[in-house]
Structures are given as structure tokens and as C-alpha cells.
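Key result, reporting period 2: structure in, sequence out.
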């Protein structure tokens, strides 16, 4: 395609373990890139992508659309003037929630049912394939990550069906450059058919949580210390409701707008650098090198 056509921008939507140099080739040809998350399962491959993008100056982003959700944008604005000390994100989902994908895994040595997201070799585990969204939101709200620590509860051989060998449970602790701590707790339990999620953010003077799908801040606003314990209604402050829009459409619009204006981010970080930092940090401990 690069040899025959005039391509300005390319969307790369492949399983993360099946990149074959197309990102590097496109960048070297001056093609702007929108790459599905995660960008790679291998640190050396991700570094090669980064070098090609930086050396050519093309616009590149990874598909972290959740930060374009109006509710998450509202949280970002609210926390921008506050010091975050802890973020906890919990997601319990059934193993069966891993959906069928279009990639013909049955012809590529993968699961016969095309549910490659439940395979450790194909997805890099649930944290890498799905939890990367939560990690990106934590970075959006609390800044860059300096260290990562994780513990997984793995499936035993007799507990693996249809190639679904991703661990049962995950506990990931993240240390932010700002001094804040993040907690990501995830499970993928077979046969439960039950989902539950929870997000909680603490800053130095309050607590932020989600109620009926909308962020609400709990903090005291008055002379301190109060003469008596304040009533709940005085502490509860729903965040202002912005104009609603679809996050997936919004991130593609932002990418196309940046391409049309050749906008690498202006005074802010370029898209590719914002989204690559966690890959570099986690890579020191968990990314496998290609060919090993």
C-alpha cells in the first residue's frame, strides 16, 4: 500500500503480538499513525516504534479513548489544581466478557474461538490488554508513573479451557512521580457472569467517587475546623456536567484534527510521548523481548 498509494494517515488495529514492522515502515514513509492499544507486547519493538516516530516527526497516538470521555475530562479539570494522593480502580469482569475479535486466530496458531484477548501469549494478560485503559486514566489524572509492582493469581492447567489462560486475579500498585499511589485490582473469573467496577480518588482535602456513573467530590468547604460535624449534603459536590460526546469518536476527531494542522501538541506533550511513558516504565519489569 505504501508503495502504490498516497497515504496520509493509517489506523493500525492488530493484536499487539502481531506487529510486523508496519508502524516503523509507515513512520519512515511520513504517514501519521493511530495505533491500537497496547502498542506492543515487546519492549524492543516498542522502542523501535518510538525511535521511528521521533526521528520522522509524524503525528502518532495510541487508542486510549477513555480520557476523551466527558466525565473523565471533568475529573482531569477538577484535579488539575489539587494534589492527588491515591487512586484505586477495581474491575471485576467474567472471563466470558473477553469478546470475539475479527483476527482469524484459528489460522494463525491461536485460540480456535478467536477470543485472543483471553490468551496470555496473545494479549499479554488482562492488565496489559484491558487494564491499560485504567492505567492511562490514572496517568491522565495523577501524572507520570515511576515504578510498578504486581502480583497475579495464575490459572492451573486444569482450570484452562479454550486456550483462556489469562490469570484469575491481578493486583498492580503504581508509584507516581508526584508521590501519589495507584491501585489497580482486576479479576476475570470463569462462570461468574458478573461484572463490578469502582473508582475512588483521594486528594489532600477530599474524596472523589462515581455515583450513578457521574463523578462526585466529597469535601468540606467552610471555616475550619467546623464547630460540629458537617452534614452529608454540605460535603457532596457533583462535578459540573459538560457537553456529552462519544469518547471513541472524539479521539479520532482529535487525531484527524492534529494531522490536518500538523499539530504535535503545541506546548503540551505530543500524543505519542504521553501514551508511551507507561510502556517504558512497565517494560523494565514485564515486557518480553521479541524472539525470546
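The corresponding designed sequence is given below.
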Amino acid at each position: 500500500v505504501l508503495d502504490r498509494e498516497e497515504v496520509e494517515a493509517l489506523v493500525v488495529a492488530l493484536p499487539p503480538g502481531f506487529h510486523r514492522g508496519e508502524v516503523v515502515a509507515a513512520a519512515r514513509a511520513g504517514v501519521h499513525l493511530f495505533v491500537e492499544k497496547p502498542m506492543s507486547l515487546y519492549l524492543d519493538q516498542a522502542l523501535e516504534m518510538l525511535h521511528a516516530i521521533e526521528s520522522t516527526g509524524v503525528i502518532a497516538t495510541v487508542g486510549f479513548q477513555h480520557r476523551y470521555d466527558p466525565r473523565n475530562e471533568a475529573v482531569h479539570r477538577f484535579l488539575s489544581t489539587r494534589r492527588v494522593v491515591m487512586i484505586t480502580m477495581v474491575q471485576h469482569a467474567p472471563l466470558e466478557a473477553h469478546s470475539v475479535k475479527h483476527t482469524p486466530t484459528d489460522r494463525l496458531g491461536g485460540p480456535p474461538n478467536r477470543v485472543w484477548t483471553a490468551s496470555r501469549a496473545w494479549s499479554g494478560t488482562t492488565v496489559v490488554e484491558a487494564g491499560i485503559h485504567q492505567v492511562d486514566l490514572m496517568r491522565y489524572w495523577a501524572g507520570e508513573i515511576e515504578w510498578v509492582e504486581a502480583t497475579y493469581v495464575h490459572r492451573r492447567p486444569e482450570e484452562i479451557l479454550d486456550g483462556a489462560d489469562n490469570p484469575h486475579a491481578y493486583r498492580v500498585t503504581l508509584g507516581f512521580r508526584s508521590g501519589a499511589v495507584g491501585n489497580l485490582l482486576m479479576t476475570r473469573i470463569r462462570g461468574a457472569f458478573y461484572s463490578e467496577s469502582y473508582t475512588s480518588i483521594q486528594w489532600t482535602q477530599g474524596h472523589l467517587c462515581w455515583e450513578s456513573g457521574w463523578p462526585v467530590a466529597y469535601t468540606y468547604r467552610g471555616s475550619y475546623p467546623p464547630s460540629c460535624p458537617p452534614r452529608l449534603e454540605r460535603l457532596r459536590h457533583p462535578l459540573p456536567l459538560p457537553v456529552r460526546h462519544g469518547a471513541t469518536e472524539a479521539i479520532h476527531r482529535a487525531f484527524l484534527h492534529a494531522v490536518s494542522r500538523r499539530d504535535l501538541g503545541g506546548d503540551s506533550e505530543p500524543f505519542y510521548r504521553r501514551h508511551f511513558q507507561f510502556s517504558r516504565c512497565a517494560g523494565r519489569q514485564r515486557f518480553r523481548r521479541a524472539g525470546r
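The CA atoms of residues 66 and 247 lie 6 Å apart. The first strand starts at residue 9 and ends at 12. This case is discussed further under Risks and Mitigation.
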